[in-house]
Design brief:
Blueprint: E1 5-6, H1 8-11, E2 26-32, E3 37-38, H2 46-63, E4 73-75, E5 81-83, E6 102-107, E7 112-113, H3 119-136, E8 138-144, H4 156-163, E9 193-194, H5 196-207, E10 217-218, H6 220-233, H7 243-251
Parallel strand pairs: 1-5, 2-6, 2-8, 3-7, 4-6
Antiparallel strand pairs: 4-5, 9-10
Length: 257
């Protein structure tokens, strides 16, 4: 299978403080989220994903007293999969008495900031699951952390996806919605512009992880988000939503139904 793995050396993992307990097989995988705020800027900067994984490892080792990061694998918005403990090693994140039953895969979303998994992240989670099946003896089950342990993890958006059968984005079930056509007017500030096309663009920015108020008013805050997006997309950072910026916003990630 094809998977874009980020090795422990590549993300700067610390050495474990002890020996891993072996895990030759499991019923499947449990999916997790961070449980805290995830900065939406990781969508635009993969380096921040690696920094976040290092921070999680530090918390698990120094805060929880674990010998290493608790997750088997970690998926980021860019469809890259970080090796945590990896296959054939007992995770620590599922809860007491539950780690031998399932591997643990983390999606880098939280309960604030970036809360909606991108298509890249969902594909990364599924890539990680396939990898653990092939190399770690993981069974067919895909469950949420909350299945069997009293927690909100992995958050409602990820859990709803799991309950649907964890489909590949764009496959099965409802077909992806087509991207809205450019409305034919330039969205710019000043002055403040208002309208349904502004709201549509703001909603898309929020959907792909930017912090923005969806109020239908294109003012200085919306312009600042536009500039950030344009820089990330390699466009002229003029703060004006024209056809190139509009179409790029709906092409950067496949629209979800």
């Amino acid at each position: 299978m094809s998977i874009d793995l980020v090795s422990r050396a590549a993300w700067g993992a610390r050495r474990p403080k002890g020996s891993y307990s072996p895990l030759s097989s499991a019923k499947g995988v449990k999916v997790h989220y961070t449980g805290g705020r995830v900065d939406p800027s990781i969508v635009d900067d993969h380096g921040r994903c690696a920094a976040m994984v290092r921070s999680i490892q530090n918390h698990h080792m120094d805060g929880n007293g674990w010998m290493d990061i608790g997750y088997s694998m970690v998926a980021c918005p860019h469809r890259k999969v970080f090796v945590g403990r990896g296959p054939k090693r007992l995770p620590a994140a599922n809860g007491p008495g539950l780690n031998s039953g399932h591997y643990a895969v983390l999606g880098l979303v939280g309960n604030a900031g970036l809360t909606q998994p991108t298509d890249g992240m969902l594909n990364g989670i599924l890539d990680a699951i396939g990898y653990l099946r092939e190399h770690g003896g993981a069974g067919r089950e895909i469950k949420g952390h909350r299945d069997g342990y009293p927690t909100d993890c992995p958050g409602d958006p990820l859990y709803a996806w799991i309950r649907k059968g964890a489909p590949r984005p764009g496959k099965g079930g409802t077909s992806p919605r087509p991207a809205p056509r450019w409305p034919g007017r330039l969205l710019r500030y000043p002055p403040v512009m208002r309208g349904g096309d502004v709201r549509t663009w703001q909603a898309r920015m929020k959907r792909i992880g930017y912090v923005i108020v969806v109020d239908g008013a294109y003012g200085p805050a919306s312009r600042a988000v536009c500039v950030r997006f344009q820089k990330a997309a390699g466009l002229d950072a003029d703060g004006i939503v024209g056809p190139l910026t509009w179409n790029a916003a709906f092409a950067v990630l496949a629209a979800k139904p």
